[in-house]
Design brief:
heterodimer, A: 200 residues, alpha+beta, Immunoglobulin-like, eight-stranded antiparallel β-sheet, 2 helices, B: 206 residues, four-stranded antiparallel β-sheet, 13 strands, 16% helix, 38% strand, elongated
Chain lengths: 200, 206
């Protein structure tokens, strides 16, 4: 009998824990967050410049992959900058409806005035050393992706209305430079611009 | 104990989830750098000027000769060039420049009736003898002009040419002048037959 009393007491001591185990619940909640990302996706990023004519040996085509998981409307900005001795400047400008991108010599940096001489729209070769402008196409589009040039900010507004992966490129065709932006004033070196795509 | 383990595990999962979600947030911007490489260039082009004249009965050059060149380079660092001249003889081309660096000459030879090389040598000497330099006429040439920080000419007396130190980036026009006037004494005479008297001036990167 005494033995059974001890067993009963022992079971009573266990009871609260047993009840707790039965009534406690862990609700595991997993939310699927909105995905919005953009990444560089290669293509051709290098070329050579003909020393006599300034002709680009091949098109430059920095490309990006936009990834979203929602068909809602997203806006993004595609822009480009170059480097001068005075810092970073906008590399995109337009003359009429034609867009251009200014590449600057990263070996011998030009001054900002050199880039400004080009982006003014009336370049003079002597006044834009170490900066060369090439025509650039509008960003490539596809169903659910549009691109509009912003004349004020000198960049493109991209509007995305589709989910999944969407590719876009900014193509600089293999062509001669904008007149009066290439000359013997442009020293040997690597002429560069940085193209950026970002969600707004 | 089990409960604590579960809580700990869930906390770790939550922390790890937060950690893995951060990069996708950061990737709302991507950049790519495009690069076009330009090499060095150096070239010389003819650039007009007066390259023909006439010689009158006294041997005077009627109009100045002024051949012009365009030097093209995208290098600012000093580069070596030479300015040379040749004249044709029966035995081939000979140096057409002569002088001492202060007073310098260019010798023109008759391309219709070629002179001998000896005839040129005589005309370029300090005391030319007209009967010893038929079909050769020598004229003074204006020394090229130096421009500080741009181009410097140094007469090379050994090779009778100008050595050039070019320190100019871009396009640079250079004109060399053979003024109107009399021929070098003792180089023009009736022994010089009718014809075109020529020399070739060459500007080149070394």
């Amino acid at each position: 009998m005494k033995k059974y009393i001890f067993i009963l007491i022992y079971l009573l001591m266990l009871l609260p824990n047993a009840k707790a185990e039965q009534t406690s619940a862990y609700y595991l909640t997993s939310s699927n967050p909105a995905v919005e990302s953009v990444s560089g996706s290669g293509r051709n990023l290098t070329a050579t410049i003909d020393t006599d004519t300034g002709l680009l040996s091949s098109a430059l085509s920095p490309s990006f992959t936009i990834l979203t998981n929602s068909p809602q409307t997203y806006t993004l900005t595609m822009s480009a900058t170059n480097t001068t001795s005075g810092g970073t400047t906008n590399a995109i400008f337009a003359i009429g409806t034609t867009r251009y991108i200014v590449l600057t010599n990263n070996t011998v940096l030009p001054n900002t005035a050199s880039v400004n001489n080009i982006t003014s729209g009336s370049p003079t070769a002597l006044n834009n050393p170490n900066a060369i402008a090439y025509q650039v196409n509008n960003p490539t589009t596809t169903t659910g992706l549009t691109a509009t040039y912003n004349t004020t900010n000198k960049n493109w507004l991209l509007t995305l209305n589709r989910a999944g992966a969407t590719n876009t490129s900014l193509v600089v065709p293999a062509a001669i430079p904008l007149t009066n932006t290439f000359s013997s004033m442009d020293e040997a070196g690597d002429y560069k611009a940085t193209v950026t795509l970002s969600f707004n | 104990m089990n409960k604590n383990l579960v809580i700990t595990a869930l906390s770790l999962v939550a922390i790890m989830s937060i950690g893995t979600m951060q990069p996708s947030k950061a990737a709302t911007t991507a950049s790519q750098i495009v690069t076009a490489t330009l090499g060095t260039t150096k070239a010389v082009q003819t650039n007009g000027g007066t390259i023909s004249s006439t010689i009158d009965d006294s041997g005077n050059l009627v109009t100045a000769l002024s051949p012009s060149f365009l030097i093209i380079t995208n290098t600012a660092a000093s580069q070596a060039m030479t300015l040379q001249a040749t004249a044709n003889t029966t035995t081939g081309n000979v140096n057409a420049f002569s002088g001492n660096g202060t007073t310098n000459y260019i010798t023109l030879t008759n391309s219709t009736i070629l002179p001998t090389a000896a005839s040129v040598t005589n005309a370029q000497s300090a005391s030319p003898v007209v009967t010893s330099n038929p079909n050769v006429i020598t004229y003074q040439i204006t020394n090229p002009t130096n421009s500080t920080g741009v181009i410097t000419y140094t007469w090379n007396s050994t090779n009778s040419l100008w050595n050039i130190a070019l320190t100019n980036k871009g396009n640079l026009a250079q004109t060399y002048t053979i003024p109107t006037g009399a021929a070098k004494s003792g180089t023009y005479s009736g022994d010089d037959e009718a014809g075109s008297y020529q020399a070739t001036i060459t500007l080149s990167f070394t």
